[in-house]
Amino acid sequence: MIKTFIDRLLGKGPKGAAAPVPVPAEPVIPLGARVEVPASQHGINLSLLDANAVRVVKTLKDAGFEAYVVGGAVRDLLVGLRPKDFDVATDATPEQVKALFRRAFIIGRRFRLVHVVFGRGREHETIEVSTFRAYLDTAAAEQVPGNEKTSRGEIADKKHVVDASGRVLRDNVWGPQVEDAARRDFTVNAMYYDPTTQVVVDYHGGLQDSRARLLRMIGDPETRYREDPVRIIRVLRFAAKLGFVIEPASEKPIRTMSPLLSNVPISRLFDEMVKLLQTGHALASIEQLRKHGLVGGTLGVFPVLDAALTPTVPNPAREAFVRAALKDTDQRVAEGRAVAPSFMLACMLWHDVQDRWTVLREAGEAPFPALQQAVDAVFDARIGDISGRGKLAADMREVWLMQPRFERRTPASAASLIAQVRFRAGYDFLRLRADCGELPGELADWWEDFHLGNDEDREAMLRDLKPQPPSRSRRAAAAPATPAAEGAGPESEDDEAGPEGDAPAGDAAAPRKRRRRRRKPGGGGGGGSDGAAGGAAEGPPARADRG
Questions:
Q1: Distance between CA 252 and CA 237 in Å, rounded?
Q2: Which stretch of DSSP H or E encloses residue 301?
Q3: Residue 223 pLDDT greater than 60, yes or no
Q4: Residue 151: C-alpha distances to residues 170, 171, 250 (Å)
């Protein structure tokens, strides 16, 4: 018995017993071999480079560090596209990078990065700088039972942590470039470009795959999807954006690995959805998601897309509106115009807002409060608690609440509406509704002409809408002035009218308030009665971006 016990401790089985089946080791990611590709072979167009990204690389190299443009920017440059974002990779630590630039900020917990900022306001640009990371086998990482939130205390001081499914929660161990390349996802994203020498460094045949228009995972695809399930969404986005084919071995595990996306934080999935819609290939991206069961299935990865594209009750009008919005967004990106996530999401959820608004009005709620309640309810249900929700909610709300105001055309409300900062976004939304048959096209045409007209044009357009006013005696008898009305400022008429539109314009029975005319400084002509409208007399106002 003692001998048997000792044999067990030593791993020896009884004589004649079958050898134990070895547990297969987790596949190790190949490190690859460094290949330097000169400009004569890769053919990158220098005019597509970003001056600030080149400046960051030069600053790091002048300080004695290695530095390269990396990842998706190199991938896009190789196929002749101008990258939307430029990332830089270096052997300098985040603290060393930060010390070299006046406006640099260390961010991130999962991956510590440095944002180097150039410019200010809406025109600013951010170059993201990462430190070369070591490849560490997932099996060797510390494992925690929860996720980023539930295990926050356990992972706070650790550098390499995974959850129970193998998803990486922390990866902040620095290493050589060869290992940094191995831990990247796809071969076409694992190349490094030095703009000072014009050399591309390729460890995994990324240049060859780029020319073959192939998306290939580095290492074992299933293992890599477990490390970061968001790679499933990324490969579908790249396929749609670049027109590349997903290599069969990299595509095969997608459906079986997709349930792991339920472990990913909602805010990160939301960011990935916005990227899908803003690549300029939104329609193609949606088709990729449908094909692989990420939209319209039971996973619920993208509740906004599920609601907009696969409603429980078929709605052809909604489908037509959403497709028109996606097509319009793709066109704007192709033209190099700005695209705001809030506009796209407002289009996706508009019919939810309408449905809820109708229910509340039928229950006896006043029109405008009902619309406000509908907006809040839909946003909370579909968007939820995400980073930046305050700005997003404000922009979406503004676009939605403008819509009933477009249908009410009075001098005060029209002048006030075109003075709104996001008027152009609201009008574009109205135009889409008209193009899809939800509203008369004449209404959208009227607002376009009013927006671009001068003071005289606008006054004439408003006169054409209104019936002739009653005589002075009838008006005096019907509407005696009150102190509150006499003291009202220029905005009071619009505020009282409100978006509900309960009182039609030009109603003879409605009390009419007197408004003081403002004279323009310097004796300028134009007789406009509203200061907001007067600025348009010099010519058409600039077309504001939706953002």
A1: 16
A2: none
A3: yes
A4: 12, 15, 31
Choice among 50, 185, 455, 530 that is catalytic? 185
DSSP 8-state secondary structure symbol assigned to residue 5 = H
CB atoms within 10 A of CB 238: 22
Q: Is residue 50 flagged as an active site residue?
A: no
Q: Which of 50, 76, 87, 202 is catalytic?
A: 87
The yes-or-no verdict on residue 263 having pLDDT over 90 is no
Q: What is the DSSP string of 161-216?
A: EE-TT--EEEE--B--HHHHHHTSSBGGGSEEEETTTTEEEESSSHHHHHHTTEE-
In 3-state terms, what secondary structure has residue 406?
Answer: helix
Question: Which residue type is seen at 213?
Answer: R
Residues 327 and 337: beta-carbon distance below 8 Å: no
Please indicate whether residue 163 is annotated as part of the active site. no
Position 107, amino acid: I
> Per-residue b/e over 242-264, b at no fewer than 16 CB within 10 Å?
bebebbeebbebbeebbebbeeb
The one-character DSSP state at 466 is S
pLDDT for the residue 303: 86
Q: How far lies 392's CA from each of 376, 396, 417, 482, 543, in Å?
A: 12, 6, 20, 41, 21
Q: Is the pTM above the cut of 0.90?
A: no
Residue 85 falls in the annotated catalytic set: yes
Structure confidence by residue, pLDDT tens digits, 139-170: 556 665 655 555 555 555 555 556 655 566 66
**What is the rounded distance in angstroms from the CA atom of residue 168 to the CA atom of residue 164?**
10
Q: What is the pLDDT of residues 250-260, one digit of tens each?
A: 999 999 999 99
Distance CA 399, CA 343 (A): 8
Q: Counting Cβ atoms within 10 Å, is residue 511 exposed (0-12), middle (13-18) or buried (19+)?
A: middle
